[in-house]
TrEMBL record:
UniProt keyword list: Hydrolase, Membrane, Protease, Transmembrane, Transmembrane helix
Gene3D superfamilies in alphabetical order: Rhomboid-like
Segments passing through the bilayer: 19-39, 72-96, 108-130, 142-163, 175-192
Family from the record: Belongs to the peptidase S54 family.
Protein's name in the database: Rhomboid family intramembrane serine protease
Domain DUF6576: 272-305
Segments forming domain Peptidase S54 rhomboid: 68-214
Membrane topology: Multi-pass membrane protein
Highest taxon of the lineage: Bacteria
Location in or out of the cell: Membrane
Ranges of compositional bias, category Low complexity: 250-263
SMART domains, sorted: DUF1751
Gene Ontology MF term list: serine-type endopeptidase activity
Length: 306
């Protein structure tokens, strides 16, 4: 057990490992929920599992949401069915690595969390203002990372619509068609048994599309998320015992402000035309997959300037 915990800690200490960390958080929450459910049922204390789930899954009633506002985020990390979390994490992995490579880790987290919030709000609005979805109080709670994962997928397809995945038994398929299939499927299933979940999918999809379009126009709607991330990180980071000179403090402040603005990272410089031409030549010779992470981010930043 200690070796497993050490593996988890090492994954969270690795730089540029945000995608794996998101998947690990979902996995840890899933295993914890399952263990609590089994133990509480075996010990005839099912109310413990019920209480834990009520603190994680998102209710639809405004009063319940106001009493548990954290559920707008926690529901997107909570699963109770193994195939549910397996499908969501595979979806997040394949599309999330594109967002992470082209836009950086901070924007991957920002898009995931915004997709969760957007999906949850869409679910709450529909269940409170559209008569068709009206249900008795206490039913249809929302849980699962599907909305957040679909936000990442739609974001990747909006950013790189012609990027190709090689599908088993099918062959190469552009990701815009893969994502469109799942969006249309969620739309048709929004009047089915899992209406709430599919409504959250559509809300996440809308967030993913809007996030990339705003970003391409020079506006990053994830900045509030980055600010909270920086605040949380600063609270958890141990203070260094050494004194910092005034010059060093000024440099650190400028770097922090640059990161808070949601940039992919200080290692990516503003590319000049020669660099862009070299990257485009490389794409022509070997395709998008041959680019390094820095080259992909430089290409994206160049598209923002144009």
């Amino acid at each position: 057990m200690s070796g497993l915990l050490d593996d988890f800690r090492s994954e969270f200490k690795k730089p540029n490992n945000t995608l794996v960390q998101l998947i690990l958080i979902n996995t840890v929450v899933f295993l914890t929920v399952v263990i609590i459910k089994v133990v509480s049922q075996v010990s005839s204390r099912g109310y413990v599992s019920h209480w834990v789930m009520s603190q994680l899954q998102m209710p639809w009633a405004p009063g319940d949401i106001a009493r548990k506002p954290w559920t707008v985020i926690t529901y997107a990390f909570t699963h109770v069915e193994p195939f549910h979390i397996l499908f969501n994490m595979l979806f997040l992995y394949y599309f999330g690595r594109l967002i992470e490579e082209y836009l950086g880790s901070r924007r991957l987290v920002g898009l995931y969390l915004l997709g969760a919030i957007g999906g949850g709000l869409c679910y709450a609005v529909c269940y409170n203002f559209i008569p068709y979805f009206s249900v008795p109080v206490g039913t249809q709670p929302l849980l699962g990372a599907s909305g957040a994962a679909l936000a990442v997928a739609v974001g990747a397809a909006t950013l790189l619509p012609n990027y190709t995945f090689h599908m088993l038994f099918i062959g190469p398929v552009r990701i815009k068609y893969i994502v469109l299939f799942f969006v249309v499927l969620s739309f048709f299933n929004s009047v089915g048994d899992n209406a709430g979940g599919n409504i959250a999918h559509l809300g996440g999809a809308l967030v993913g599309f809007s996030y990339i379009k705003f970003l391409q126009n020079g506006s990053d709607i994830g900045r509030p998320i980055y600010w909270v991330m920086d605040l949380w990180s600063n609270m958890l980071r141990p203070k260094p015992p050494v004194k910092v000179s005034q010059r060093q403090r000024s440099t650190q402040t400028a770097t922090s402000a640059y990161a808070t603005a949601g940039s992919p990272g200080p290692s990516v410089s503003i590319p000049d035309q020669d660099e862009i031409d070299a990257i485009l030549d490389k794409i022509g010779r070997s395709g998008y997959e041959s680019l390094t992470r820095e080259e992909k981010q430089k290409l994206f930043r160049a598209s923002q300037k144009s």
